[in-house]
Amino acid sequence: MSAKIIDGKQMAEDIRGEVAVGVKALVGSTGVVPGLAAVLVGDDPASAIYVRNKRRACEEAGIFSETFELAATTTQEELLALVAKLNEDERFHGILVQLPLPPHISERTVILALDPNKDVDGLHPLNVGLLLQGEPRFVPATPAGVQEMLVRSGNDPWGKSVVVVGRSNIVGKPLAALLMQKAKGANATVTVCHTGTADIGALTRQADIVVAAMGRPRAITADMVRDGAVVIDVGINRIEDPSRKSGTRLVGDVDFEGVSEKASAISPVPGGVGPMTIAMLLKSTLLAAERAARGPA
Ligand code: GUN
């Protein structure tokens, strides 16, 4: 079998178009312009690219966006002071603190300082708890993007067996919480594998849907998926490739060449989950602004 490609780039474009329509409608009816503050600490090149792409996508969708770039030497107190200021700034309905933060800053402390109503990344423990209980306020962008890709590609997880490989707070755990709910685009039987799992292949081979999110280049190989499975690749790994001018290239957590021979559908890297993450963040920012415009429930 040669897999159908799940084109995250095209889907993301569609969603960004839908968000732009929603932004216009909100501005037209209430005058409220959705705003997103992005905070970038340090000079990690990958993070700088993500934040730049987010800003561009905001502009295109009519969302007001400002990036706060802080030096790698910024203290935790300085960052917390900025977060407190942004919490109060009515121009911003969403605040995104790009992770990872430099090692001298506690990510947990910074996330706890965010106003949960502006936490469009869905990382504050209150929002994590609401998601787990099936009352999501903000779903983290990457898991939301994975769910949307499954549904839009005609592979609704409802009633399916989903194996998530990876248990990060930003992808694996919230994705499992999202897909296990008795809710639209979910209601799956979810298994989470991680470094403590004795035989990951034994579990992924049983899955209708495999989501690779463990951050190991091409670790999911053809022998680990069953014929006709749907495979979503969340990984973004830069590996050496002397045949490229840059000397490197991006690969996912899935061995695309091998697995695409067996899967019925597969998301590529790049052009899969990455663009969807940005689109879903815009969608959450619009949602935050719509709620703010409506006033307290
Ligand atoms: N770093 C990598 N992905 C993400 C994300 O979705 N949100 C934040 N805040 N940081 C990230």
List keywords for this structure.
297 residues, alpha/beta, Rossmann fold, three-stranded parallel beta sheet, globular, binds guanine
Can you tell me about this structure?
The chain is α/β, with parallel strands linked by helices and about 300 residues long. It has 2 domains: about 30-115, Rossmann fold; about 140-275, NAD(P)-binding Rossmann-like Domain (Rossmann fold), CATH 3.40.50.720. Helix content is about 40%, strand content about 15%. The protein is built from 10 helices and 11 strands. The strands form 3 sheets. The chain has a 6-stranded parallel β-sheet with strand order 1-11-8-7-5-6. Strand 9 and strand 10 (about 250) form a beta hairpin. Helix 6 (about 140-150) crosses helix 10 (about 275-295). The termini are far apart. The mean pLDDT is about 95. The structure holds guanine. Guanine binds near residues 97 and 277.
